[in-house]
Amino acid sequence: MSDIQERLQILLDYWIKHNQEHEQEFREWADKGASLSGGVGRQLQEAAAKMADATNCLEKAREALT
Prior knowledge:
This protein is an all-alpha fold. It has helices at about 5-35, 40-65. It has one domain (about 5-65). It is built from 2 helices and no strands. Helix 1 runs antiparallel to helix 2 (about 40-65). The protein starts with a helix and ends with a helix.
C-alpha cells in the first residue's frame, strides 16, 4: 500500500466515524426541534439523511482502496 493509500485509509476511517456522529446528533436534535415551527425537525432529518448518503460514499471509497 502506498503512502497516499495509507493516509486515505486513516482519513476515510476518521471521516466515516465523524459523519456517523454528526448524523446521530442531527437526528437527536430533529426530535427535539420537531415541535418548532418552520420545519426545523424535518430539515434536520433531511440533513441527517444526506450525511448518511455521504457516509455511504466514503465507505465505498474505503472499499475501493483495498
